[in-house]
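Example 3.2
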Amino acid sequence: QDRLVQSGGGLMQPGGSLRLSCTTNGFNLNFWAVVWFRQAPGKGREWVSCISSSDGSTYYADSVKGRFTASRDYLRNTVHLQMTDLKPADTAVYYCAAEVPYSCSGLIKPGDFETWGPGTQVTVSS
């Protein structure tokens, strides 16, 4: 069973930055689409960024566009989510998920993904 490993997260003041990372222990993540989801208390799991497996195109949810950047480190088999100008509304558990083949151009749903990381808490508070 494929499994993703996450690091990063924590507590940050509004306006601050955090970087999340997602990698694997048994396969080459570079060939897979990688999506970052988040889930706030009492809310559903929503996608925030998606890197397609086909052409590498990257998409962002409107709520994070211009503040979050997803990128691949191919040599380290890792995908990062750099989060800047954090806001209290960004507080959530963040999950990475992967699938191949997968295009980010359509409706991105948690049910599309079978391979997940364990999630990491991001809290933005004064």
